[in-house]
Amino acid sequence: MFLRYLYNELVDLNLVCNQREVGKYLNKTRSYLSSALSKNRDVSVSSLLYLTAKLDEIEESTTEVLTTERDAAEKQALIEGLESIKDLNNKCWEKIWEKTLTEK
User: What is the pTM of this model?
Assistant: First the structure.
C-alpha cells in the first residue's frame, strides 16, 4: 500500500516521528493515517498533490541552505537528503498519474 510506503519514507527523511504527524503533509487530520490503514484505504490524489507541494517547499529551502557555507560532511548529508526528497516526489507523481489514468 502506497500510504504505508509514504509513512516509512517520511520517517526515513526525519520529516515525521510518528503516524499522527503524517496528516500535516497530506492535508488531513492527525488520526488520518491510522484510520486509513485500519480501513485499508490508500492515499487520495488530492492528498498526494498536497504532499508534492510540501516536498517542493522542502526541496527549495534545502537548496537555499546548500548555498550557505557548510562543511563537507554537512553539505553531503544535505545533498543526500535532497536526492531522497526528489525521489519521493517523483514516486508521488508516478502514483498521481497512475491513479488519474485508472480512475473512471
Answer: 0.89
